[in-house]
Write a structure and sequence with these properties.
The strands form four sheets. Strands 3-2-4-7-8-9 form a six-stranded mixed beta sheet, sandwiched between helices. It has a four-stranded antiparallel beta sheet with strand order 10-11-14-13. The chain has a two-stranded parallel ribbon with strand order 1-12. The protein is 39% helix and 16% strand. It is built from eleven helices and 14 strands. The chain has two domains: 11-16 and 227-356, Alpha-Beta Complex (Aspartate Aminotransferase, domain 1); 26-210, Aspartate Aminotransferase, domain 2. It is an alpha/beta fold. It starts with 10 loop residues before the first strand and ends in a 10-residue tail after the last helix. Belongs to the class-V pyridoxal-phosphate-dependent aminotransferase family. It is an enzyme of class 2 (transferase). Substrate binds at residue 303. It holds the Pfam family Aminotran_5.
């Protein structure tokens, strides 16, 4: 489809810059894996949606021995099975646990603190590798407290930058593992970056200067607002969106409250509606971008992303637009119902802006 400018602001409410926003995170995935593991190493990885599926595919193509723990899409990682595997692994053949913190395809957030508790309980030395692409700087994420060994994110999510930067943070344990990992790596080799950092030039290749300056500004803005306040804002918008979905009489793709995501909500539609039509109508008539359902939930869900440089009044505009679209495609929504539910919650929960008190 050719891009044609529409008057006014494009109301971008996908959980990333495009309908399938994984490119910036893919290199970070590969960096995390190839710097800490050797071909044939056993990993335990959880398949709960499209992006965890893609990371598993990458692990398999990089010749790791991937022990896949699959759950129904809409459920979180099955940590009971992880406990069983750790308990049985007396010889410590599992070298890494690979888990997506927030699965944007289904709106599921996994409990990383529990993963760490299991590793500690069984005194298992496996590395904990975490895809935080759609969680870091939006959801509560505690690398040190949860003993995360490699955390990665992308510039196009909560940092509100264009796609293009994969950001990787490694623990001392992961850096030590990188000294003996035998996976082939060149562009993503941590040693090159560390060497040039120590030399004071910071980057072994031509960097994207504009994105790095943008990253500096984005981080400054996050700390100006306060990271706790950023997380609380995302919590409010996630709750408001779920209340709107409930008021519309629709269901969340995420099957339990404990897995609800505060950065993206995947909304199930009735069988007589193709969710792709909702996304098309949003773009064609209302100049709004919503997320498609991917893979197993294609045609069954549409996704509302509520993360990044976004405030509550912008979200309410999105919810109003979704109501009109639902009406357009034949769903008997009561106009204003979801917006009213979200407003009732937000009006009692939005704090004063500290700098304006």
């Amino acid at each position: 489809m050719d891009y044609v400018y529409g008057p006014g602001k494009n109301h971008l409410f996908v959980p990333g810059p495009v309908n399938i926003p994984e490119p910036s995170g893919t290199g970070a995935w590969e960096s995390a894996l190839t710097n800490t593991l050797s071909p044939g190493d056993r990993t335990v990885s959880f398949l709960i949606g499209q992006f965890s599926l893609l990371w598993i595919d990458q692990q398999q193509r990089l010749n790791f021995n991937v022990d896949v723990v699959e759950s129904e899409w809409g459920q979180g990682a099955n940590l009971d099975i992880l406990a069983e595997k750790l308990a049985a692994d007396h010889s410590h053949t599992i070298k890494a646990i690979c888990i997506v913190h927030n699965e944007t395809a289904t709106g599921v957030t996994n409990n990383l603190a529990t993963v760490r508790k299991l590793l500690d309980h069984y005194r298992h030395p496996a590395l904990l590798l975490v895809d935080g692409v759609s969680s870091i700087c939006a959801l509560d994420f505690r690398m040190d407290e949860w003993g995360v060994d490699v955390a990665l994110t992308g510039s196009q999510k909560a940092l509100s930058l264009p796609t293009g930067l994969g950001i990787v943070c490694a623990s001392p344990k992961a850096l030590e593992a990188s000294k003996s990992a035998k996976s082939v790596r060149v562009f993503f080799d941590w040693n090159d970056y560390l060497k040039f950092y120590k030399l004071g030039t910071f980057w072994p290749y031509t960097p994207s200067i504009q994105l790095l300056y943008g990253l500096r500004a984005a981080v400054d803005l996050i700390f100006e607002e306060g990271l706790d306040n950023v997380i609380a804002r995302h919590t409010r918008m996630g709750k408001a969106t779920r209340l709107a979905v409930e008021a519309w009489g629709l269901k969340n793709c995420t099957q339990k409250e404990e897995w609800y995501s505060d950065t993206v909500t995947a909304v199930l539609v009735p069988p007589y509606i193709d969710s792709a039509e909702i996304v098309k109508r949003a773009w064609k008539r209302y100049n709004m971008s919503l997320g498609l359902g991917l893979n197993k939930v294609a045609g069954k869900v549409f996704r509302i992303g509520h993360l990044g440089n976004l405030n509550e009044l912008q979200l309410l505009g999105c919810l109003a637009g979704v109501e009109m679209i639902l009406k357009d495609v034949g769903y008997p929504v009561k106009l204003g119902s979801g917006v009213a539910a979200a407003c009732a919650y937000l009006q009692n929960n939005i704090p004063m802006i500290p700098s304006r008190i």
